[in-house]
């Protein structure tokens, strides 16, 4: 990060983009599609010529046009003109832009995350298009789609060109338990939307695209849009916020957050809640269908799961007076240690949900967690009832166990009803945190869909060190002594 600190993040990023021939052509692709959207007359001919200059893009569009979903008329598309007629200009332009992104962003260590960002971009463009088609027919729905498709441009470019910095952001999120935006400002001192706006200006994109990518920080609901450029700005901003909710927030917060955004933009975009909910579902389905036809390396569900993991924070249910929240000046509290280590374990083993459980009078209760619906699950993860269960059995034996198929008939008597109601994961790992024969906690990590094999390295290496840190924090908080040397 020394170069970024010396020159500034945005100038460094723009210099790296300029040095990449592929990204120079991406800017040209965006400009071309935007101009064609502005002037549909004769646009097909120019678009066809541009597509034919890219053999890979030509092949992919012909394949898409001849997929079962589009070749319903019984005609085969053997030319780009025929492909455009079958697919429609809206779909073709979306594919042109996103395939240009895909060609540039693949073959990197972060390629899976970049693929997921492209999926989110597809959805954002589709939602912008549908909202404009329903609520503002006087404005171009194709222009809205392009504006929506480019909303996470800054994220993708930063992830590609500033990967080291983004990794530092992720590390700070885990260490300090921060939101993504707070960690971005602490490490890079810039937001993703500011990066998008800077790239749009640097590429001299059309005014409507530059405006749609401009950061908007007003806290009061916006006024009604009266011009095309105002509409595209607000529509793209709303679609980006909905995309961030669906692809980055924990599932438990999704419904409330979407409702709040609809209410915030209701007057400006003339939104109706039930209709918008339907448009969201329609756009998710349309995005998945297009990805399937393209044989894209990620789908909506995979993209949402991956991007959510990058934004999760450790949730805890501890009161301010709890012993785990107290520490001497200059020391980390037990909760701070737990939050950091849980996040490290969660990321290392790719769990969908990671919890820390403490023994209590009924058996065990979760007190902190990270991952899918963690905040909701932590409040419900409670061993209770008279029947023996697998969690209390493992805790009593102070053993470790991986369950590869929690729905196996042989395990049915040991999987309690409260677990099926609250979690019901396909597979999970239990690791006991014990010291000098005493159980201080139980580490739980699960997979919503069974991976088929047990996670590797849970008894040595990083995990062994993380378990020591958890045990030391729990022992110190519980017995009021210095952390033991483990």
List keywords for this structure.
single chain; 486 residues; alpha+beta; Hypothetical protein af1432; Beta-Lactamase; 2 domains; six-stranded antiparallel β-sheet; 8% strand; elongated; disordered N terminus
Write a structural description.
This protein is an alpha+beta fold. The chain has two domains: 2-309, Hypothetical protein af1432; 315-479, GAF domain (Beta-Lactamase, 2-Layer Sandwich), CATH 3.30.450. It has 23 helices and six strands. A six-stranded antiparallel sheet has the order 1-3-2-6-5-4. Strand 5 and strand 6 form a beta hairpin. Helix 8 packs antiparallel against helix 10 (153-161) and helix 8 crosses helix 15. The longest helix is centred in the first third of the chain and has 25 residues, at 111-135. It is elongated. Mean pLDDT is 84; it is low at 1-6.
């Amino acid at each position: 990060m020394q170069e970024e600190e010396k020159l500034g993040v945005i100038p460094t990023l723009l210099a790296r983009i300029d040095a990449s021939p592929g990204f120079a052509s991406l800017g040209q692709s965006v400009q071309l599609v935007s101009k064609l959207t502005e002037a549909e007359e004769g646009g097909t001919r120019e678009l066809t010529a541009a597509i034919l200059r890219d053999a890979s893009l030509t092949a992919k569009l012909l394949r898409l046009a001849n997929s079962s979903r589009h070749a319903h008329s019984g005609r085969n598309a053997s030319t780009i003109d025929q492909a455009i007629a079958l697919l429609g200009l809206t779909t073709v332009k979306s594919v042109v832009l996103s395939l240009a992104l895909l060609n540039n962003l693949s073959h990197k260590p972060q390629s899976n995350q970049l693929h997921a960002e492209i999926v989110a971009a597809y959805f954002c463009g589709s939602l912008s298009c549908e909202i404009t088609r329903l609520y503002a027919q006087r404005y171009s729905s194709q222009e809205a789609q392009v504006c929506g498709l480019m909303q996470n441009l800054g994220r993708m470019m930063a992830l590609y060109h500033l990967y080291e910095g983004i990794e530092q952001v992720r590390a700070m999120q885990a260490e300090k338990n921060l939101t993504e935006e707070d960690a971005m400002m602490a490490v890079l001192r810039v937001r993703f939307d500011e990066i998008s706006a800077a790239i749009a200006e640097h590429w001299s994109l059309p005014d409507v695209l530059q405006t749609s990518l401009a950061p908007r920080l007003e806290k009061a609901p916006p006024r009604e849009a009266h011009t095309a450029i105002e509409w595209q700005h607000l529509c793209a901003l709303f679609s980006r916020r909905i995309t961030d909710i669906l692809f980055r927030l924990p599932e438990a917060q999704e419904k409330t957050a979407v409702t709040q955004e609809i209410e915030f933009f209701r007057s400006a975009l003339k939104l109706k809640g039930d209709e918008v909910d339907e448009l969201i579902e329609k756009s998710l389905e349309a995005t998945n269908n297009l990805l399937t036809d393209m044989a894209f390396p990620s789908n909506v569900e995979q993209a949402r799961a991956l991007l959510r993991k990058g934004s999760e924070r450790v949730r805890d249910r501890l009161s301010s007076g709890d012993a785990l929240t107290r520490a001497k000046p200059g020391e980390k509290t037990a909760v701070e240690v737990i939050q950091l280590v849980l996040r490290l374990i969660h990321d290392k083993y790719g769990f969908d949900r990671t919890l820390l459980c403490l023994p209590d009078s009924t058996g065990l209760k979760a007190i902190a967690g990270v991952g899918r619906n963690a905040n909701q699950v932590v409040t419900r993860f409670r061993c209770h009832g008279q029947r023996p269960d697998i969690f209390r059995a493992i805790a009593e034996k102070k053993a470790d166990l991986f369950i590869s198929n929690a729905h196996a008939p042989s395990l049915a008597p040991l999987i309690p009803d409260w677990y099926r109601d609250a979690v019901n994961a396909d597979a999970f790992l239990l690791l006991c945190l014990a010291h000098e024969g005493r159980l201080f906690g139980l580490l739980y990590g699960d997979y919503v869909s069974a991976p088929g094999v047990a996670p590797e390295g849970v008894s040595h290496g990083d995990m062994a060190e993380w378990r020591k840190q958890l045990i030391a924090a729990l022992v110190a908080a519980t017995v009021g002594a210095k952390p033991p040397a483990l």
